[in-house]
Specification:
An 8-stranded mixed sheet has the order 10-9-6-11-14-15-16-17, with helices on both faces. With 457 residues, it is of the alpha/beta class. The longest helix is centred in the C-terminal third of the chain and has 21 residues, at 312-332. The protein has 2 domains: 8-116, 3-Layer(aba) Sandwich (Rossmann fold), CATH 3.40.50.1950; 121-220 and 237-415, CoaB-like (Rossmann fold), CATH 3.40.50. The protein has helices at 10-17, 28-36, 42-49, 62-66, 68-78, 106-117, 151-162, 194-204, 247-251, 300-304, 312-332, 371-386, 407-415, 448-453, and strands at 21-26, 54-58, 83-85, 90-92, 98-100, 126-131, 136-137, 143-144, 166-171, 186-190, 210-213, 220-222, 241-243, 260-266, 336-340, 349-356, 361-370.
């Protein structure tokens, strides 16, 4: 007789279903309703009934934004737990004027939503990331540098911020910085030459829980910098080079106990040796036992190192690249070293082999992996070393998956736009919000008053 569907109240069902609410654009009127707790329409009723985090994106005329009443409402909303109020940048407005009051850019909103939904596995931790090449001046115009674009470091910084860390990104003078988070818990700094990078690292590295040294400092610099510009009329100049300081080796002396440091090694032979394989987070990266033995004394990674079509010369070249990385790992006192090929410079895709402090291969990310996905995997491994069960200090983090993660499953999750660990839509609704799946049969699609008007009981 009684169908449960008729007791479903739309704004309550939606409030229970939502994992995140984004108010964009948030007008002055709607923010006043939120601040006062009013529930006079569907949207305000749903937000009042929901316990999900809320991202508020103000958008209005500059005068309305500057009004003391609006500013008071913004302060009230920003002080509430679970509410994040984004800034209102300056620019052209719908009223034809220009000034503060524009809605935040969609990319910034998406990054903030990703941070809220990122699981918080790195919340409470500080991450220091370096990216890009150094620029060693030759004269006042010319520099000696390399091909590193800094894109991998930028993706690591972005992924660490999404996972809840407080991030400081040190970028080279030519490194790309488009699309990076702004404001809360993210700070971007620039360095010039190798000695400038060393000074920054000495002042910042001792306070970081995670350090990713993905910058490409030059090994050598000109012995002197010529004032002005060297002219062609003087003939071909001779440039005397002197060694630069070893940044990682110098800074490792201030490495705090319990912190995790990850270095990078660009090796030409590494491109031949990153064609596929499973990711093993249940081995040394997770603080567990050695990699799984598959018989014959070979680990699963050793069997898949070469990929389906690798040849013996390619294997030898790849092994030389890993041996060189192991030597760097020991000399510089790192917890991990990520070995990538030189073909990844300047592109959106990469392939990485990750070695732990003992020199064992613990993770292989195949060539053709998006750099953000690769950054997420590296942070997952480093985070498991800091927190073996992936739990934030507040207890809100979900238990990390310490079992082997298939590369294809991870990349599929990233392609869908959900970092791993974020729940999808409840299966009950089959992708549709509540109250949309069917109408209550009692009313046959008409409001109750329609039946009363026609004289029916």
């Amino acid at each position: 007789m009684w169908d449960r569907g008729q007791f479903e109240i739309a704004h309550v069902s939606w409030a229970r279903w939502a994992e995140l609410a984004i108010v964009a654009p948030a007008t002055a009127d709607f923010m006043a309703k939120m601040a006062a707790g009013l529930a006079g329409d569907f949207a305000s009723s749903m937000l009042l009934a929901s316990s999900a985090p809320v991202v508020v994106c103000p958008a209005m005329n500059s005068g309305m934004l500057a009004n003391p009443a609006t500013q008071a409402n913004l302060r009230v909303l920003a002080s509430r737990p679970g509410v994040r109020v984004l800034g209102s940048p300056e620019g052209p407005l719908a009223c034809g004027t220009s000034g503060a009051g524009r809605m935040a850019e969609p990319r910034e909103i998406a990054l903030e939503a990703a941070r809220v939904m990122g699981g918080g596995s790195l919340s409470g931790l500080g991450a220091l990331v370096t990216s890009g090449a150094t620029a060693e001046p030759w004269d006042d115009i010319r520099i000696l540098t390399n091909r590193s674009s800094g894109r991998m470091g930028a993706e690591i910084a972005r992924a660490a911020w999404v996972m809840g860390a407080e991030v400081t990104l040190l970028s080279g003078p030519l490194a790309e910085d488009a699309g990076l988070p702004e404001g809360q818990a993210f700070r971007g700094l620039r360095f010039g030459d190798c000695r400038d990078l060393l000074r920054h690292m000495q002042s910042l590295a001792g306070h970081a829980d995670l350090v990713f040294m993905s910058a490409a400092p030059a090994d050598f610099r000109p012995s002197e910098t010529v004032a002005g510009k060297i002219r062609k009329a003087g003939g071909v100049p001779e440039i005397a080079l002197v060694p630069n300081p070893d940044v990682l080796k110098e800074v490792s002396r201030v490495k705090p106990p319990g912190s995790v440091w990850v270095g990078f090694a660009a090796e030409p032979g590494a491109d031949l040796n990153a064609s596929g394989g499973d990711l093993n987070l249940s081995g040394p990266a997770a603080g567990c036992s050695e990699t799984q033995d598959t018989g014959g004394g070979k680990s699963r990674h050793a069997q898949k190192t070469a990929g389906p079509g690798a040849t013996e010369p390619g294997l030898r070249t790849g092994e030389r690249a890993l041996d060189s990385a192991r030597d760097k790992l020991r000399r510089k006192g790192l917890d991990f070293i990520a070995v990538n090929g030189t073909s990844a410079f300047g592109g959106d895709l990469t392939g990485i082999s990750l070695l732990d402090s003992s020199g064992e291969l613990v993770m292989k990310i195949p060539d053709g992996t998006p750099k953000f996905a690769a950054a997420w995997m590296l942070l997952k491994a480093a985070g498991l070393r800091l927190r073996p069960w992936g739990r934030a200090p507040c207890g809100c983090g979900r238990r990390a998956e310490a079992s082997s993660i298939q590369t294809t499953e991870f990349l599929t999750a990233v392609t869908w736009g959900r970092p791993p660990g974020i729940r999808g839509r409840p299966p009950l609704f089959n992708g549709r919000p509540p109250m949309i799946r069917r109408r209550p049969p009692l009313f046959n699609g008409r409001p109750p008053t329609a039946s009363l008007i026609r004289g029916r009981p």
